[in-house]
Amino acid sequence: MLRPWPILLALALPAAATTTNHDHNHSNICQTLAHHHPHLPLTLPSSPLYPTHNTYWSARQTALHPACFVSPTSTAEVAQTIRFLTTHRAPFSVKGGGHTAFEGGSNADDGGVTIDLVGLNSVVVSGDRGTVSVGAGNRWINVSEVLDPLGLAVVAGRSSTVGVSGLALGGGISYFSGGRGWACDNVRRYEVVLASGEVVEASVEENADLYWALRGGGGSSFGVVTRFDLVAFEQGELWASSRVYPGAATNRTLIPLMHELLVKGLAEDHAAHTYFVMTYAAELGGYVVLSDEFHATHSDLASPPEVFAGFHDAALPTLSINTRLSNVSRLSRDIEQAPGLRQTWWVTSVAATATPDLLLDIVPLWEEYVARLIAAAAADNSTVSPFLIYHPISSNILEAMQVNGGNALGLKPEDGPLMIVQLTLSWTSTGMDEAVETGSKELIDKINALADSRGESSKNGYIYMNYAGKTQDVFAGYGKQSHAKLRHVAKKYDPRGELRDLWKGYFKV
Ligand SMILES: Cc1cc2nc3c(=O)[nH]c(=O)nc-3n(C[C@H](O)[C@H](O)[C@H](O)COP(=O)(O)OP(=O)(O)OC[C@H]3O[C@@H](n4cnc5c(N)ncnc54)[C@H](O)[C@@H]3O)c2cc1C
Fold this sequence. Notes:
By secondary structure, the chain is α+β, with helices and mostly antiparallel strands.
């Protein structure tokens, strides 16, 4: 059975502890931590607060049960916690907004400790309105709710409850990426707790190698970021249009329009942003397509920005249209996806080819997988919602990524434009887990093989960390040079490999 249609619209230490290393039964680590640092906010499984900390977007993460949650309320408390955990060789994980789809992405198991950053929740706008200092436990909605009334914005995530931390450390696709790059390109300065518990700043001027690595290299190889200083800019309401089309037939019209945006339209209009979602909704007659369009400066509801005109052709059949002017907070709530289901995200990217054929030829591969998923769900008495999403990385975005010496993603303007091809599936029964993981890997492999067979570019296969499946080799997609530099930086700031060994469950350089 497929899940109901509305889900698509929803898309729209003071001193180090004295105990010796290696002498700990991990199930006792929380008692030892409480003993050494009685002031640290610590939540044991017996506490009524435990389920609140153990709430994650994906049910696969909530299914894990760390020995305890530590929820520091200051950088000093994060430093005490990290120094304690590394000294005691205790496995741990770090929860920002908790939106990783796969189990263990930001929750510890097997007697490990999860550091929940929720207490680092300050949002402070600088006197000159040019910077916003954001505590690492914030969700993007906390930031936009402060900035919207001030007529300011940052290059943020598009969905309200997603964490600032994970999104900005892995990259960060935003409504404003056309002119400004990804979220990571718009961080001025980080405050970071290293494996040793030392607190450092990272910016263009200070620890520049760490600053580079945190812009796309993720957090878990380098340290716990406690504060992000983000570039702020003046911004009023955005124009937005969510348009749902009946699928299979319109793909042949819509995908060429998307290709045209990728290779030309978006590069010519830096205020425009879009993504394109394909799904299957039996109640709507089968395959449907959502085009979500945004424009940072257009304010005329009567006519679309020129760049999106093709999608608004009256001859194109639509199932629903929702065009509005909206601030970032309202938009990001519209795009929210409810928590509580089992989730997987997988991703690849393909370099733009001269014609839309490659983007069109991916669709039958996806449809064949959807048919298999429907059969598997029926056999398992489960529900499944499948989505294939195209996110353009047009040449202007690649150019904007080169600020401050470039980020760690390994993407250069000459590599593009690129189209991210993201697969996202949510389902209800654990019985489906293996079929979903195996099938998703197979689909991504087939898309990569198809792209490589077209032979127009060697830049296929960039893997966006924030959309990657648990077993994907994210850093291979960054290219050898960027990967080697990331390893070098990780070794410099974590010389004993403590984060590498103890921080469980995410993509390590
Ligand atoms: C509904 C939804 C909408 C999304 N929308 C977008 C979007 O618009 N654009 C986009 O680019 N991505 C988007 N994503 C993907 C999102 O960027 C990733 O899921 C990201 O990892 C979420 O960050 P988080 O803090 O919520 O995740 P978490 O699972 O808490 O963290 C992710 C990783 O970062 C580590 N980490 C967390 N905090 C810190 C820290 N302070 N220091 C060091 N490491 C840390 C964690 O240990 C984990 O390894 C979306 C995801 C969902 C589920």
